Fold this protein.
Amino acid sequence: MGASFELFDHTADVGVRLYADSLEELPFVAAKGLYSVIGQLRGGGLGRQQSFEFRDDDPEIMLRDFLAELLYLFVQEGLIADAVEVDEYSDRALRVNVTLALVDDGASEFEREVKAVTYHDLTLQEVDGAYVAVFIVDI
Amino acid sequence: MSKNNTAADQHYTGPLERLDDCRWLVPKSSKPGMSVDGIVYASDALIEHIRRDKAPEQVANVACLPGIVGRSLAMPDIHWGYGFPIGGVAATDPAQGGVISPGGVGYDINCGVRLIRSDVMFEDIQSQVSHLVDELFKTVPCGVGKGGRIKFKRQELNKLMADGVGYVVGKGYGWTSDVEMTEGNGCLSGARSDYVSDRAYSRGEPQCGTLGSGNHFLEVQVVDEVFDERAASVMGLALGQVAVMIHSGSRGLGYQVCEDAIRDLRSAPKKYGIDLPDRQLVCAPLHSPEGSRYYGAMAAAANYAWCNRQIMTHLTREVFSSVLGRSAERLGLHLVYDVAHNIAKLETHDIAGVPTKLCVHRKGATRAFPPGHAEVPARYRGIGQPVLVPGDMGRCSYVLTGEPAAMAETFGSSCHGAGRLMSRGAAIRAAKGRSIAKELAARGIYVRATSRKGLDEEQPEAYKDVSEVVEVLDGARITKKVAKLRPVGVIKG
């Protein structure tokens, strides 16, 4: 089926629901969901490769932490994830290698300022062998 | 938006007992772990909107915080937030293990509102409003992630976060009188810039003096109705006068401080044996290392936010002076007041007749101290603290004053705005095929915005009628109406 996301309403904020066949697909589709809240972002020049490692006993917290890192890189350096390779996503760690691209300001549309990826209603569930995750961003 | 999440399954179905025309009870028995009752201030009409999301459940969740005293409160502009509801007020007693929670402040630390009045009459400059707004739009940086032309280096930010508004006024970005007309003189004591991360610094360096986006705005307004002539006169407000209202907060620096604090506090509930109904309510006793670190960093970000609004005031004065050809002093562009509506403060309140130092969280709520209170500026001590309540960009905003009942019931707090009625997705769907800018222009309101979608999401119909919100608190004698202002020019990020 492939990983996908949808945005949903949350009064003043915006929710993102993710669907994936495997845990490993979740980080990249989560990144795409986050960027779609911000606007229509287009990558331009090559940024850099960066590895991230998160350690926690809660996979949904590690996913949120990964998104918080991506949000910081977007607001501070104008970088977005162009590809995400997952080395490990378990109930102990999330280790990913990310190809970051510089945002092409001219080709992108910036619609919302995302203040943060919140912990509110943060979930990650296995449903019939697939995965559904939810996060809410503060606008 | 592809899915509506404010459907029936998101409605609040728990107990809400009508106490009178203005108050609804969320009883202590409604959720395990609640140590106090919840009170929602609302009319019969507003409560129907309030039931449509889970904000009342969040009132109950807040009532579970360790050391909470009095009641978990919600103002009539309450809506579903994260952790606390937006419109929530909660006070904890630090001497009794009371906690401080970043969820009770929000990511936009010291988001707030200020009002600048003028001696200019609308009828005299009506034809220049669009030019004024265009120039303000060019001069006040706004939009997603925007930085400004005024930048502060790290050492300067240290002073700014320690001293607040007084620091930037000393640098020439304002008048000495602005300091006194800012809540708490624009400086929350106990700020610790050494608890602010490098990331927060780097986000804060270019953004002091920028509006941001979302519901932040700068409006040129006209005093449209005066309810209390005496109070309006003390504030320098009169019918037909032009004023400017600015709504913004601590920008990326504040968001990062909150992000960092929540990470720091994640292990605190286990360490201190706190059972929380929502992870976003993460907290620690104020008098713990984690609680102290958050308070110090939060106070630093609050001071940054006051400086942010102060610098935008300076830029506004420059634009008015340039466009209208008179100095800001001759135009009488005095700050009426500046209020924080996302903050935690240490304040003394009576608990069972005993003056007690409490940690008062206001998340989408405004301080509303009554006449005579020592923390109200001398100029306003006879009328009560000005409370600034922005509405939506098509209708109106209000100036109120705090009343004695606020101290007795709400830890001296009132509402902060109209409160959202529609989700962002619903607002976009409702705007399909329409031009919000043209609709506003037809109502005599000139709008400049960086994003059409942002304007759609912030359309007037997306909000409750602020007049209904204000009437509830007037009826409850929490605040008193002074004046109503209508927008004639709007800048949205």
In short: The longest strand of chain A covers residues 43-55. The radius of gyration of chain A is 14 Å. The interface with chain B takes residues 6-15, 17, 38-39, 61, 65, 68, 72, 75-76, 109-113, 115-116, 118-122, 136, 138-139 of chain A (CB under 8 Å).
